[in-house]
Specification:
By secondary structure, this protein is of the alpha/beta class. It has four domains: 3-128, Rossmann fold (3-Layer(aba) Sandwich), CATH 3.40.50.2300; 142-306, 3-Layer(aba) Sandwich (Rossmann fold); 309-398, Helicase, Ruva Protein, domain 3, CATH 1.10.8.60; 411-481, no CATH class. Helix content is 48%, strand content 13%. The protein is built from 20 helices and 18 strands. It has helices spanning 11-23, 34-41, 64-68, 85-93, 106-128, 142-155, 171-180, 202-207, 224-227, 243-255, 281-286, 292-298, 314-330, 339-346, 353-367, 381-398, 411-429, 438-456, 461-468, 472-481, and strands spanning 3-7, 27-31, 48-52, 54-55, 58-59, 75-80, 98-101, 161-164, 189-193, 208-209, 221-222, 232-236, 257-258, 267-268, 272-277, 301-304, 336-337, 373-374. It has a five-stranded parallel beta sheet, sandwiched between helices. A five-stranded parallel beta sheet has the order 9-12-15-8-16. Strand 13 and strand 14 (267-268) form a beta hairpin. Helix 5 (106-128) crosses helix 6 (142-155) and helix 6 (142-155) crosses helix 7. The protein is flat, with a radius of gyration of 27 Å. The two termini are 37 Å apart. Mean pLDDT is 83; it is low at 401-421.
Length: 486
């Protein structure tokens, strides 16, 4: 039995496809806008999503990558009310399973749905047969677990992989993990630093050279493409390649052949390609800075790594992991972090991601000296100042600032300020007695927040949804959960 979501604002289409889903023995759900649809697909694992292009709050094609990378990695069937060649091209390029024009026949919808589910189930079964080695990757958040699922898919094939993410998110580590879990694990993992490739050395670096082929070539040299034969060739920072280097590499990638400098014949190299970048290659293609044909070839499987600020709950585990490594590296007794140390780490934005976290931890580890407990005071003054400023900005954003009109509306801002103070006081009351468990505290705070929303905006749902950022369905679900009458 499959789990299928329909995201379409046409009620009749939802009912028609929903009836077909039920008759086929599957479980169905639907959403009439993108906000509700994205909330559902990112909260529960679906096998298939029917996604409309024209929705009240946006274009479905813009959200196709997010849908495909959501929990369960669902297949996507695009729906549209008119024939759209460009839309069909974008949908297929974006990884959609099929593109259906409304109204489509029940037979056509049923056939496409059945084939998409069969394909999805085969992928899932293949991924489950792969026992992943994740020894060097830490984290249990939903965001990072999605990456594990995609590693399993990538490890079971020889398809080219593109790993994207901000600086410091661990792109090379994930590329190495894909290699370590593939059938090529016993062969070389060869790293090419694309940022350091120069026009004069690219051919010699990638393809090698024969002795005497140019000044300074005193002996034969193997290129990185040859060294990666039967292994993995990792192009680090592929977005830094110049257009001329991209052209030189494109044929190698297409044919898997190369010619060393000074050689008169070509050689084969059976390498598997993994590339990584922190740049937006699609935007670079639009500006003419990156070849579209090269992007198509390196992006067969796309793995996007989440920034550390989005990996809720992983900071403590990453900290403990790195402190154990530092203890071994420095050959000293174990050190543990105090709770205030974790509090500071959890409230920082981490623009440098995991790399920055590990650097900060090593600084604090060293500053701790012979002690066995690491406190927030062991962090550098510079970092503590940045963290304090970051927290202040968060607090300022959390409480809306109400403009004060001195002449005509003096009383109204006072009411708003008093209301904000009352809200803060109510939360503060939760700390006056014994602390409840964190889960219970979150529930109390959530309920208090909902009550304040209803009171402050007098039950006006549109205003409440705008301020809170909640979808209508999520808002009513929370009211029901806390037994609050609107």
């Amino acid at each position: 039995m499959g789990k299928i979501l329909i995201i379409d604002d046409d009620v009749q289409v939802c009912e028609t496809i929903g009836s077909l889903i039920i008759r086929s023995g599957h479980e169905g759900a639907y959403a009439h806008n993108l906000a509700d649809g994205m909330e559902k697909v990112e909260a529960d694992p679906f096998d298939l999503v029917f996604l409309d292009i024209s929705l009240p709050d946006g274009n479905g094609l813009d959200y196709l990558p997010r849908v495909k990378s959501a929990l369960g990695f669902p297949e996507v069937i695009i729906l549209t009310g008119k024939g759209d060649d460009d839309g069909a091209e974008l949908a297929i390029q974006g990884g959609a399973w099929d593109f259906l024009v409304k109204p489509s026949s029940i037979k056509q919808i049923s056939l496409s749905m059945r084939r998409a589910l069969e394909f999805h189930n085969e992928k899932q079964n293949k991924a489950q047969r792969v026992a992943l080695n994740l020894d060097n990757i830490v984290g249990k958040s939903p965001e990072i677990k999605r990456c594990y699922d995609l590693i399993a898919h990538a490890a079971g094939s020889d398809a080219n992989v593109l790993v994207t993410g901000e600086t410091g998110t661990g792109k090379e580590l994930f590329a190495q993990t894909i290699h370590d879990n593939s059938l090529r694990v016993n062969n070389n993992f060869v790293v090419v630093d694309c940022a350091s490739l120069t026009e004069s050395l690219i051919e010699s670096t990638l393809f090698g050279h024969k002795r005497g082929s140019f000044t300074g070539a005193q002996s034969d040299r193997k290129g990185l493409v040859q060294l990666s034969d039967k292994g993995t060739l990792f192009l680090d920072e592929v977005g830094e390649m110049s257009l001329s280097i991209q052209k030189s590499f494109l044929r190698v990638l297409q044919e898997r052949t190369y010619r060393p400098v000074g050689e008169n014949k070509e050689f084969k190299s059976n390498f598997r390609l993994v590339a990584a970048t922190n740049r937006d290659l699609d935007a670079m293609v639009a500006k003419g800075e990156f070849r579209q044909d090269l992007l198509y070839r390196i992006k067969t499987i796309h793995l996007t790594l989440p920034p550390l600020r989005d990996r809720v709950g992983d900071i403590r585990e990453l900290t403990d992991f790195h402190l154990r490594r530092l203890r071994t590296q420095y050959e000293v007794p174990p050190k543990v972090a105090n709770s205030d140390f974790y509090d500071v780490l959890n409230n920082y934005n981490w623009p440098g991601n995991v790399r920055q976290l590990f650097n900060v931890l090593e600084q604090a580890f060293v500053a701790c000296g012979s002690g066995n407990t690491i406190y927030a005071m062991h962090l550098s003054d510079d970092l503590r100042i940045k963290m304090a400023k970051s927290n202040l900005k968060k607090n300022v954003k959390a409480v809306p600032v109400v403009p004060v009109e001195i002449e005509s509306k003096k009383a109204e801002p006072l009411v708003e300020v008093a209301s904000a103070m009352d809200s803060a006081a109510a939360l503060e009351d939760l700390f006056t007695h014994d602390l409840p468990p964190l889960k219970e505290f979150k529930g109390l705070a959530e309920k208090r927040y909902l009550e304040e929303l209803l009171s402050r905006y007098k039950g006006e749902t549109p205003a409440i949804l705008k301020v809170s950022g909640l979808s209508r369905s999520h808002f009513y679900a929370l009211l029901k959960k806390h037994e609050i009458k609107d």
